[in-house]
Each structure stands twice: as structure tokens, then as C-alpha cells.
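User: Could you walk me through two proteins back to back? I'd like the raw sequence and the C-alpha cells for each, with a short line separating them so I can tell where one ends and the next begins.

Assistant: Of course. Protein one, sequence then structure:
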Amino acid sequence: MDYVSALVPPFVMAAFFIALVVTIVKSQGGSNKAKEDAAVDAVLARAEATQQQK
């Protein structure tokens, strides 16, 4: 039974890692992508405007 207790932690860590990757992949794109792109565009536009004023 020692081999079972030795193998459980790696399998649990692997399951959490897979769940993390799936969550990250699912959060990419869709309605979130438009919001993130708009935020990045606004920051870049603000930085360009500040740079041109100097």
C-alpha cells in the first residue's frame, strides 16, 4: 500500500495542473478578448499621445 500513497500526490498535482490549463484556455477569446483588446488599445493610444506631446 505504500506505492499507492507514493503515487497519489503526483496524480493530484497533475489533475490540478490540467484544470489550470483548461481554465486558462477557456478564458482566452470570446467576449473577454474584446474587453482585453480594448483596454490594451486604450493604454497604447494614451502612451502614444503622451509621447507625441513631448
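----
Protein two, same layout:
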Amino acid sequence: MAKKPENLSFEQSLGELEQIVNELEQGDVALDDALKQFERGVHLVRASQDKLEQAQQKVAILLANDTEAPLSPFESEEQ
């Protein structure tokens, strides 16, 4: 059974959304299955939006604690 969207990481949600979009774009999915996938996608998007909003709030709180903290570009460890 698939995990609940709120229990997935942001990256897992995004990966599953990409898979759903690819399957729906191919058009080989029965209508009932397409509707179920669409509904799952909507739940994934909402859970992802919640995670992003929480992250934005945390950043705002952290920056509010240090008003002198300069903003700098994010550099990924992969670079």
C-alpha cells in the first residue's frame, strides 16, 4: 500500500508526482485508474505545499532571530 502523502519526504512526493504525470501523459491508463492517480497527485501536491510552507516559516523564524544575518546564495553539496 502506498504511503500517505504527508508521510513522504518532499523529494519522494515530487518523484511520485513525476511518475503519475508521465503515466497520465502516455494515455494508456483506464479512466478509473487515471482518476485515482489524479486524486493521489492532488494529495501529493497539497502535502508538498504544506512542507514548503513549513520550511519557509522556519527560515523566516531563523532569520528573524538574527536580523543582521546576511542572505547568501544556496550552494548544493553536489557541486
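The mean pLDDT is 86.

Let me know if you want the two compared in more detail.
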